Amino acid sequence: MDSLVLALESSLSLFSAVSTIVGLMVGSFLNVVICRLPKMMENDWKDQCAELAGKSPEKRPPFNLVFPRSRCDSCGHAISSIENIPVLSYLFLRGKCRHCGSRILPRTALVEAATGIMSGFAAWHFGFGMAAFGAFLVIWSMVALTFIDIDTQLLPDSITLPLLWAGLLFNLEGGFTSLASAVLGAAFGYLSLWSIYWLFKIATKKEGMGYGDFKLLAAIGAWLGAAQLPLVILLSSVVGAISGIALIVLAKQGRGTPIPFGPYLAGGGLIALFWGREIARLYLG
């Protein structure tokens, strides 16, 4: 074990390659999280409503991130280990179920590939150490939150809140920023979007965003510090505006169609994670 750690520490190429492979495997698990966590939340809400109404919760088979085993949505074919190799299985099967030939969503391979590539890049960018391992946690969380928000317009507390606390703990000894900056980043991140939410609601009588967005920006602030928040908000707002206009023009979506803001916050946070200080030096200089 010591020799493996020493090898990873001494060879940036090896560390990046191993991190990419680990990222691919984590990406495969994130596909399960993206698919199942919203359904688990829905089941939990139904049970809570039943309890409030004085009824017994509905009895259902175990459903969590482990059980039941992953299956084809069309035919119920249990996915074997050889069919679950990240990216490679999708390419080998040509994007189809081996049993019934139904189409497998390309996004499955996209999530795995994106997680692997970003994990490998984080290893190369930060080198072997706590900074890289912290970046892995941020990347994996952002990938899961992005696709859950796209699918359901939800940002689960079960991801955002642990991510926020993990950021504060990570910066206890000055991981990416000082502890004081991390605490201020968490507070200002939440309050900034909370203030915009209420100003927009008072002015228009409509809700412009959800509370999950506040918590996500608070988590980003806890990891990167208060100084990075203006950059994150600027980047996510610009990308969000461009994407919103493109969806209206190209996809013929109405202006009243809700657009999840979480993916843009996640994108802005990841850009700031890797290049925030360099970008800050450019515009401050």
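[next item in queue]
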Amino acid sequence: MNNMENSRKSRFQQTLAKPFSCIGCSIHRGARVSMTVMPGEADTGYVFYRKDIANGQGEVAARWNTVSQTKLSTSVSNRFGVEVNTIEHLVAALYGCGIDNARIVLNGPEVPIMDGSAKAFVESINMAGKKTLQRVRTAFVITKPIAVAANGAVAMLVPSPVSEFEISINFPKTAIGEQAFTTTLEHAFTKNDVTNARTFGFAQEISVLKRIGLAKGGTLENALLVDGEKIINEGGLRYQDEFVRHKVLDSIGDLALAGATIVGKFIGNKSGHHLNNLLLREMMMQENNWIFTSTQQAEENWSELVDYSLAV
């Protein structure tokens, strides 16, 4: 049986059974990075530790309210201004594979990009295994729609008895075109719906990005490169709609920063890291549009919880 089967069905929080390590390049800074992901204690979530930062200032929690930068990736920082960049693929893999708590030790400021997808992280999590913690897993049950919009893009959460993701994108006159994809959080990784989908960029933007200090480590080994209506990568696509599937992967990582399972459907039209984080911040302010409870209650009494909220 796949070790990720029913990975988020557990009624109790989970962590890794043992640590795993990765070494790779950081896509934006272009530096070689060593990372070890270790078991975490209950209710701690995902916490990064920068070994290169002295005086005990290198601890950075990954939460919706610690997000500090969303240009082409998601970054988090602490009160000392210490930042960790490009966390979304790793966090998506942890969250989707049912890991609620983890300590992530880095020797630099950015998570390694590996092959541009979550494949290496998912495989490592699967090999490390999971340990159940004696603490109830919690959930935000979306009972009324929550939405944000900017520059023609929309991101919203609507009631659903399961965690779902529906994304649509449109890049006219490129090899991407118009794409849409829907999956559940359970199937995203157990069925490899998004596991292997790689990040992507555009040939005409590379020089500008590198000039402002981004994409220094980007290569055809860790990203899809689109040049007009052509895909430059020699091996082509892993999925016919790999681009939108990667957007789903990114959204899973961004919404995992809520700090608990979101039981509801995420709908994104041209949304990205910035809008995804704005949606979480809006959600936290609209307390009448969700109920915080255990995942067991969410699963067993979803319709009653939603009906009660609508009646209040």
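[queue empty]
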